[in-house]
Model the fold of this input.
Amino acid sequence: MSLLDRRTVLIAGVAVTLAGCGDSKETGSTSTPGATAPTSTTPPPSTTVPTTTPSSTPSTSAPTLTSTAPNWNTFASSLKGRVYLPSTSGYAAAHQLFNPRWDSVRPTAVVKAANPADVQKAINFARTNKLVLVPKSGGHSYVGASTIANGLQLDVGALKDMSYANGVLTVGAGARLYDVHAFLDRYGRSLPTGTCPTVGVAGLTLGGGMGIHTRTYGLTCDRVVSMSVITADGKAHNVSASAESDLFAALRGSGGGNLGVVTSFQFATIPATKLGFFRLAWPESQAAAVVRGWQKFAQSAPTTAWGNLHIDAKSNGTLSIRVLGVSTTGDATAAAAQLESFVGVKASDRTLSVKSHLEAVRYLGGGTTSPRQGFLAGSDVLKGPMDAATITGLLGAVKAAARAGTPASAILDPLGGQASKEPAGGSLWPWRGALAVVQWYSSAQGKPAQTFIANGHRAVRSSSAGGYVNYLETGRAVSSYYGGNVAKLQAAKKKYDPTNFFHTPYTLS
Ligand SMILES: Cc1cc2nc3c(=O)[nH]c(=O)nc-3n(C[C@H](O)[C@H](O)[C@H](O)COP(=O)(O)OP(=O)(O)OC[C@H]3O[C@@H](n4cnc5c(N)ncnc54)[C@H](O)[C@@H]3O)c2cc1C
Done:
């Protein structure tokens, strides 16, 4: 491979020479998909979160482990992909995540892998040079876990090839959700996923993956039939229910960045059917009744029915109370009526519609792409229905934010149905028996957002079993994301990453 560009850069006080790997790689014009500002400005109407501005000081960092200057020239020459050092043209875009609050975290280098062999080489290089390595797929980590100061960010975004045969999707770990849906739509197929079009399939799947199909078909991770993963020793594994089933089950729910770098997934797809939608809204005076009724709906609606409850602080100090519902039967009339009967009060605003698979994907995602957003968020997994005092506390937490002028939402996603069942092949996603996940979300900066999230946690403490690993928070015990599966996950970590190579404040140990 020819070395077409050389420039001297200073990294960690050591002057090294950067060598690029080819003509097109030396222009520095390649942008990171999640780092560019897409055109859509429509706020997603569902589990996705409002437009925001950057928030408080990032805490993503790793111990500085570099002892001698790594030989970047030799490493870069060995790759089909590309290495970005801080002085490389394109580094600024290459290291960005979806949330701009992590822009100030500057990895020692960004490696954009072009194939699984590059992933292996990057892991081996980082291990040899005692660099902490974090994988990045879609870059949507809530805590910036896919970037790292004094470490190597391994971007698998270019591994996004897809193929489909006999109901099974094979997809590279770097694919984004909209691209997956658009591809599957050609075959009349779909996949249960989250709604944000730019979320990466890898991060979403490894942490579970909740969305409108959760109750009918389970979590995204439940549909995985096999995965190709490269572990800390640089070895490639193809794991499934019948091959290294302990690693397979652990990857299905442990969250990204813990046990290895997944390079591709095989998923059992679902039919891409038309979907019935409802949107129901009530005045704030009915808020407690709506929460009670929604809890009954989450407990006893048919598995074809799903609906998430949004309690939003409005800028005038009041609350907006609404449920966005979906029926996989194609008609949401009965589901909407059932929810209204559980609430005991007719909705003040009511819309029903039917959408094709791809129309639904675009509607839920606010388009085909999503602009970068700054936010602070957290979660609680609800063990079961909240009692009256807890509901009052939850509503009070959002109301306090509304009164303080803090943009804030509590978004409650139901579990149950197929998500309550252990999938074939096993999974260590810990919340099979839970009722719902409540997300505390704020676009505010610093303290106001932190206060809202802390108030939310406090309000539902008696009903909370822990947190959802795809909604990581700083300062929270890692074990709180794993419920009763902590010991099993730690055993898998010890077996497949005995030196704790994949190590950040958010990983298992
Ligand atoms: C706007 C928005 C909407 C969202 N909507 C939903 C939703 O509807 N449902 C839902 O369940 N979640 C949702 N999420 C949460 C989302 O699922 C998680 O943030 C997820 O981890 C993001 O995956 P990613 O690949 O985009 O992120 P990344 O930041 O790239 O990765 C997340 C974690 O996985 C690791 N990782 C990345 N790639 C790999 C790999 N190939 N192998 C191993 N580890 C890897 C990273 O190191 C990091 O720790 C949403 C997030 C945002 C920001």
